[in-house]
Automatic annotation (TrEMBL):
Annotated Pfam families: Cadherin_2 (PF08266)
Compartments (UniProt record): Membrane
The keyword Transport belongs to this UniProt entry's keyword annotation: no
Membrane topology of this protein: Single-pass membrane protein
Family annotation (InterPro entries): Cadherin-like_dom, Cadherin-like_sf, Cadherin_CS, Cadherin_N, Protocadherin/Cadherin-CA
Listed name of the protein: Cadherin domain-containing protein
Organism annotation: Goodea atripinnis
Keywords of this entry: Calcium, Cell adhesion, Glycoprotein, Membrane, Repeat, Transmembrane, Transmembrane helix
Main location as per UniProt: membrane
Record domain Cadherin: where: 35-104
Amino acid sequence: MSYSFPEEMKRGSVIGNIAKDLGLQKGALSTRRSRIDTEESDKRYCDINLGNGELIVAERIDREELCGEKASCILKQEIVLENPLELHRISLHIQDVNDNSPQFNEKLISLEIHELAGRGARFVVEEAHDAD
């Protein structure tokens, strides 16, 4: 299973419905002692609401902190169901939200533009950088 959602969602925000996507009856997640196991981190970014089967955000996810400058950011986790034992892999695709302003190396940039400069003339400015 795969879910995509934006970074920085509030705790308790719904990502998707695990019970529905797995085709489980109401209450099955609770009776089968469902839980999420993480493969890559000890940090628990999401959890399951056993009452309604929703996969929810358990902790704020900052894409840049988690994946740096990688083009895609994917958290891999497993849902474990007991009696009988089942494992379901889920991929959480964290979408970038432009939450960092661009920064220039210099605080003040001065340009000298000649008064005879033509309309649409271009002027070179140093590159700005941001964490997004």
